[in-house]
Amino acid sequence: MKHLPPLKSLPVFLSVCKHLNFSKAANELCVTHSAVSQSIQSLESYLGKRLFHRTTRQMTLTEDGKRYQRAIQEGINIIEQATLRELTSQQQISISIIPSLGLKWLIPRMPALQEKYPDIDLRFSTHSTLALELLPHSLDIAICYGEGNEWPEYNVVPWNEDRLVLVGSPSKKPLPDDLNNYFAEQPTIWVDRSLRDSDWTHWCQSLGVDVPNNTKRRYFQSSVQAIEAAIAGLGVFVTHRMFVNDEIKAGLLAELTPHSVLSRCSYFIVSKKEKQNRPEVQNVIAWLQDTLKQEKSVTS
């Protein structure tokens, strides 16, 4: 800090470099001609060299002036970029969510979030792993599926205990009492993912019926694909109610039985402890909680 020039003179210097005219620089900076002249004299005195050749008709930069202009302009650019990054990052929130929940729940509700907090720059991404250390360092919030004790180094807030439901096209006939025979004849839709392997088993066990056999299973790579298959009437599907609430409300899917069962895991809002006190993070977490609470109160 010992070798810094008079800092107030640097914007004046760059303005004079641009215009090569004291009066035009003064107009741009909204100061007097005298103030510009004094700033340049102060800077040249500090550096011990002339930065401008001045005559009655024109002004030009000296070689020292040209070299100093390039260096100062580069420094100012760095300061501007750093400041812009900080101004942006203060309002930027990065949120990651499992793909199906993101597509079926969060994205349709993001306009409401942006309307409530228009200054928040929400960055959305998806993840398919519970290992948060593999997610970007810039991540602020993650909505994760698990038992809640998998993330001891993070701030963990319970969000939703989701339920498994059996859904299908509204054109499907009412379920008979004998579900074993029904599932033996009815195509069933499955998601070929380890995270979803136990959904059908857990739901069937809760009713005391056999898990549908392999002969009429139709597999899809994601819950989103499986939901579309169910809408198209390709079979019946055990899935998470959060994934299909909107489709049920819209009449695209129907719950084929009132029976539902709590899924083995729940959803949690997970954030880094060093970021949990940011007002923007708190606002987004509160919005996630309030929105879900309001939707549950409407359906209950």
From TrEMBL:
<dbReference type="InterPro" id="IPR036390">
    <property type="entry name" value="WH_DNA-bd_sf"/>
</dbReference>
<keyword id="KW-0804">Transcription</keyword>
<comment type="similarity">
    <text>Belongs to the LysR transcriptional regulatory family.</text>
</comment>
<protein>
    <submittedName>
        <fullName>LysR family transcriptional regulator</fullName>
    </submittedName>
</protein>
<keyword id="KW-0805">Transcription regulation</keyword>
<keyword id="KW-0238">DNA-binding</keyword>
<dbReference type="InterPro" id="IPR058163">
    <property type="entry name" value="LysR-type_TF_proteobact-type"/>
</dbReference>
<dbReference type="InterPro" id="IPR000847">
    <property type="entry name" value="LysR_HTH_N"/>
</dbReference>
<feature type="domain" description="HTH lysR-type">
    <location>
        <begin position="5"/>
        <end position="62"/>
    </location>
</feature>
<dbReference type="InterPro" id="IPR005119">
    <property type="entry name" value="LysR_subst-bd"/>
</dbReference>
<dbReference type="Pfam" id="PF03466">
    <property type="entry name" value="LysR_substrate"/>
</dbReference>
<dbReference type="InterPro" id="IPR036388">
    <property type="entry name" value="WH-like_DNA-bd_sf"/>
</dbReference>
<dbReference type="Pfam" id="PF00126">
    <property type="entry name" value="HTH_1"/>
</dbReference>
